[in-house]
């Protein structure tokens, strides 16, 4: 048997790629002990049923350690009921004695290094508030929500009905420093109350990609309110309305910023493009 330090390195490599992880766990009690710590430190769920089974398992056994990273990676057609299941699982994790919790003044939350969602929300979901219920249980330093489709597909993972609930949860995270949101929709300009970007004092970098119905004025208002703490904001393939209309350009944002603040705001904002339409739409030019 190799030294424990060597065994840890071997299992860190083997567990993510092994087709039958249970066979590793059954090798010996030492393998089980080390493997449980590795698995629980970085939880990765690929189906709603996995979330439900893990929550059920925590009824009879405890976590080996507090999770530091949680990833939920579910194909688009299989993501129904994801947030009620995620909420139930996070509730179980938070109630475990091993869970590392923080109290930010607005409630106790699970402290994480990274929360990663690769999953679709749905416009017809009767309970979009479940997004808030689930995300309100954690306090990550990094958060990414993107869609499961290939990068060249301009699909929507974060639908407009979910966006307000998402932002309500984000605004309560006291540890968040790096935020990435892609494949996202806001309510159109015809909405009575346009959704502002969230106020997150701890945030250092904010990336928005493949976003529709986000106006330059909303970006400008956010930058003005966050200039003291934010280090960079990146917009990639962000549109005022639909993808057939104009993109959000840096000049548009700066034009909505008070003149005396433009020199301070301009270095924070980067605007770019990854996708182009063969025909139609607003082509990207680097000087934007």
Please tag this protein with its features.
9 strands, nine-stranded mixed beta sheet, about 290 residues, alpha/beta, about 30% helix
The main pleated sheet reads as: 9 strands, mixed
Span between termini: 60 Å
Helical proportion? 25-40%
Give the overall shape. Answer: elongated
Mean pLDDT: 87
Counting DSSP E segments of at least 2 residues, the number of strands comes to 9
The total count of helices amounts to: 10
SSE order, one letter for each helix or strand: HHHEHEHEEHEHEEHEHHE
User: Mind telling me the C-alpha Rg?
Assistant: 21 Å
* Proportion in β-strands: 15-25%
Regions with pLDDT < 50 over 5+ consecutive residues? Answer: none
Description:
This protein has helices at 4-14, 21-25, 29-41, 48-57, 82-94, 130-135, 163-170, 216-226, 250-255, 262-265; strands at 42-45, 69-73, 101-103, 108-118, 138-146, 178-185, 205-212, 232-238, 269-272. With 288 residues, the protein is of the alpha/beta class. Strands 1, 2, 3, 4, 5, 6, 7, 8 and 9 form a nine-stranded mixed beta sheet that branches. It is elongated, with a radius of gyration of 21 Å. It starts with a helix and ends in a 16-residue tail after the last strand. The model has no long low-confidence stretch (mean pLDDT 87).
């Amino acid at each position: 048997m190799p030294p424990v330090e060597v065994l840890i390195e071997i299992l860190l490599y083997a567990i993510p790629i092994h087709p039958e992880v249970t066979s590793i766990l059954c090798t010996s009690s030492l393998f089980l002990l080390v493997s449980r710590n590795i698995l629980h430190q970085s939880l990765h769920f690929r189906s709603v049923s996995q979330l439900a089974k893990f929550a059920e398992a925590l009824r009879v056994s405890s976590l080996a350690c507090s999770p530091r990273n949680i990833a939920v990676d579910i194909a688009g057609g299989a993501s129904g009921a994801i947030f009620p299941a995620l909420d139930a699982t996070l509730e179980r994790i938070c109630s475990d004695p091993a869970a590392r919790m923080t109290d930010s003044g607005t409630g106790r939350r699970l402290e994480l290094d990274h929360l990663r969602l690769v999953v679709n929300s749905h416009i017809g979901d009767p309970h979009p508030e479940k997004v808030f219920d689930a995300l309100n249980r954690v306090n990550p330093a990094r958060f990414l929500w993107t869609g499961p489709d290939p990068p060249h597909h301009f699909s929507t993972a974060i639908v407009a009905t979910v966006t307000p609930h998402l932002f309500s949860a984000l605004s309560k995270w006291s540890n968040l420093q790096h935020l990435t949101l892609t494949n996202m929709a806001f309510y159109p300009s015809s909405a009575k109350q346009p959704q502002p970007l969230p106020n997150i004092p701890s945030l250092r970098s904010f990336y928005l990609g493949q976003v529709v119905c986000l106006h330059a004025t909303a970006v400008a208002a956010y930058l003005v309110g966050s200039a003291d703490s934010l280090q960079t904001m990146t917009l990639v393939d962000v549109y005022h309305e639909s993808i057939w209309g104009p993109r959000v350009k840096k000049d548009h944002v700066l034009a909505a910023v008070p003149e005396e603040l433009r020199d301070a705001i301009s270095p924070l904002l980067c605007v770019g493009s990854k996708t182009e339409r063969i025909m139609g739409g607003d082509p990207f030019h680097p000087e934007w």
